[in-house]
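Recap quiz, item 2
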Amino acid sequence: MEKAKKWPEKWQELNPGCMVLRPGSAREYHTGTWRSQRPIFDTNRCIKCGVCYIFCPEGCIHQGADGYFSADLDYCKGCGICAHECWPGAITMVEEG
Amino acid sequence: MSKRIGMEIALAAAEAVALCRPDVVAAYPITPNTHIPEHLSDIVAEGRIDTDFICVESEHSALSACCGASGAGARAFTATSSQGLLYMAEIVPIASSMRLPIVMAIGNRALSGPINIWNDHSDIMSQRDSGWISLFAADGQETVDMMIQAFKIAEHRDVMLPVNINLDGFQLTHVVEPMLLPEQKEVDRFLPPYKPYAALHPDNAVSMGSLGMPDIFNEAMQAKDHALIRSKKVILEVWKEWEQLFGRKYEPIGAYRMNGAEVALLTLGSMGDTAEVAVDEMRSKGVKVGLLKLKLWRPFPTEELIKAVKGLTSLAVIDRAVSFGGANAPVAAEIKAALYDQKERPLITNYIIGLGGRDVVVDDFVKMVEKTIDARKKKPKEAYEIYGVRGS
C-alpha cells in the first residue's frame, strides 16, 4: 500500500483559496483510512454478477482476471453497501484491526 | 480629464462599473440597489461594454454565477440589498474562501421585519464575518471612486478577495449628486485587464472549492484571515495611487475637524455628511468636537483607529444596526474591542440611529454629542441606546 499523502504541515503551504492545481491528485488521498470495517469476498458463494461493482459509491470494486471482485482498500470506506446488496451473500463485513 | 456629471448615484455607480469593463454581471433586482444592475443592463444592451449580463432567477444564483465566472477568469460584478444579500448568504463566504475577486455593490437596506425597504446597515452587518473586504461610501463621489478602486484591490495578487461597497439605500442610491466620472482611458491605465492566479480551463485543469476536512480547516481559516488582514496594505497603496491620479484622498478613517477635538462622533456611510454640518455648527459655538468617518470596515483598521482617537476624552459611536441582545451595536463593539488594550482611551457612548430609513437630522447629532459630554459626569445606564425611540 502506497504511503498516504501528507497534507501541508503549515498554513503558509496552502494554495490560495485551497485551490488544487494538480489534476488527479485526489487519488493520493487514501480515504480507506476512514474505514472501520472491511468487506471479505467469499469466492465459493460469488456468482460474478457484479452487483457489488455497480453499487459501490466509491467505485473502488474491481473485477480480477479470474472474474471475481475485490475492493481497493486504499479507497474503500467500509460502508457495507456491497455486502448489503450482494444477494448470494458472498460479502461479509468484518471489523478492522 | 474626468467628466463632471449630475446623476442619480446608482446610475453613476453603474457607469463606474462599466468603465471597469466587467466580463460578467449577474444580478437580481431588489430595492434600493436595482438601478445599478438595471442601468448596467442598458449599457450592455447599447453595446457600450462587451459584457455578459446574466438575468438570474435569484440572488443565490447571482453570486453563484459570479463565482463560476470569476473562477473561469472573468471580471465579475453583482449588486444587491437586504433580503437579497441574505438569500445570497450561502455563497458569500464561499466567494472569499475561494479567493475570487468579485465586486458587489450593496444598496444598504433594513432586514425584515416588519417589511421595510429603507436604509440601515443590518444587511451588511449580517455578513460582517464572511471574509470580504468591506468599504463604506459616504457620498456619490466616493461610490463612483470605490467601484473602480474595488476591482483593483480585489484582483491584486496579494489580495484575491471579493469586495463589497456599501452605499446607503435611498440616501445615496436614489439621490442626484454632482460627481466626477473618470475617462475610460484613465480607468484603463489605472485598472489593467484581470489576470487570474488560476482559472478553470480544460487545457490546464485546476479544482476550486474542494472539501477541506478537520485536519486542514484551521489552516485554511488562518490563511483566509491572513489574506484579509494583509489586504489593508494593498488598499492603502491603491488609495495612494488614486489620490495621485485623481486628487481625491481616501483613508480607512477620514477625519473632519479633528484638530484639538476633545469629543468626536464616529459614523459609517452617508450619515457622516449630516454629522459634518452638526460639527460645523457646534465648532462655531466653541465646542471642541470632531468627526471620524469610517470607510474601511473590513479589514478593520485598528491601528488607524488608535491614532485617530488619541487625545479624545469622549467618542460617540453611531451605529445603524442593532446586534440584538449584544453588548453593543456592531461598530461600537468593534471599536471597544480594538481600544481595550490601550492604556488611555476615550469614554465611548453608542447610539443606534436611522433604522429602516428613519430620518436623522443635524440636531440629532448635536444632541448625541451633548449626551456624550454629559456621560463623563453621569455614566449612562445602558451600553447603547436606540436614539429617538418614542416612549423611552
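Chain B has a mean pLDDT of 97.
Residues 214-246 of chain B form the longest helix (33 residues).
End of item.
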